[in-house]
Amino acid sequence: MKRLYIDRMESIYAICEDDKCNAMQIPISSLPNEAKEGDVIILTNQGEIIIDEKYTCKRKNIIKKIQNKIWHNE
Fold first, then answer.
1. What does pLDDT average to in each consecutive run of 10 residues of the chain (74 residues)?
2. Mind spelling out the 3-state secondary structure of the chain?
3. Domain count, the chain
């Protein structure tokens, strides 16, 4: 199992990064239809790609807290 973050969509590829900032391209056609930038996906050992909704939500909340901290300390 490998966890990746969808950084952006370019042409026919989703540019994803792992926890160590290693980038990889995954064909958008291989992703679940509802996948979007910012989602966390899991590549299973069986070759499936699924969206980790719980981790995606957790990650987005962490990012919002960091942004709020930065914007309120200007």
1. 96 96 96 96 96 95 91 72
2. CEEEEEEEEECCEEEEECCCCCEEEEEHHHCCCCCCCCCEEEECCCCCEEECHHHHHHHHHHHHHHHHHHHHCC
3. 1
